[in-house]
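Quick note —
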Amino acid sequence: MRWIFSSVVLHDSSVSCRKSYASDLLDAIWVLLVSLGDFLLDLLPHDVIYVRMRRRELHLRVVGDGREWRDVAALAITKLNERRRVIAVGQSAGEAVSLDPDALELVEPLNHPRSIISDFEAAGELLTQAIRRVMGRRQFFNPVLVMHPLEMLEGGLTKVEHRALLELVEHAGACRGCIWTGRELTSEELGAARKCKTELFSLDDS
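Predicted structure written out below.
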C-alpha cells in the first residue's frame, strides 16, 4: 500500500512538471510573437500626428507633409436619444446647436476647471473625428499620436489624466501613442515618435 501511494505521487509530480513546461513554452511563444509584431509594426509607414490640446481648441498636425486641422474643441450631440450621436464638430457644432437647441447640445469635452478632460466619451469622439478630417482618405495605416496638453498642467499630470490620455489614443484607433508636456516639438523631434516605446515621450529617443 505504501508503494502504491508513492507511485501515485510520482505520477502526479510528473504531470505537474509537464504542465509547467507547457505553460512556460506558451508564454515564451507569446512573448516572441508580441516582439515580432512590434518589429513588423515599426516597418510600416505610420504617420505621426501631433495633437495639441487646449480647453477650447484642438490642433492636429501630420508630421512631414503639412496637413493640419485646427478648430474649436466642441461637438454637437443629439440629446433626445439614449445613444448620443455626433452631428457636427468644431465651430460648426455651435452653429448647429443654435439652429436646433431642443434636439442638440453643445459638448466641450476638454473644458473643465480642474482637469484636462471633462467628458471622456465625447473627447474620444472629438479626437476620432479630428483625425479623420486631417488624414482624409490617405490613411492606410493607423497613426502614431503624440498627445500634448497645453493647459491645466500645474503640478503635472495626475495618474488619472495620464491614463485618460492613453485611453483616448486607443479609442481613436491609433497604433501607438505617447504624452509630451514640454515646449512645442519640431518636426525632426516628432519623427522619433514612430519608434517611441514609452508612454512619456522623451527627446532622448530622437
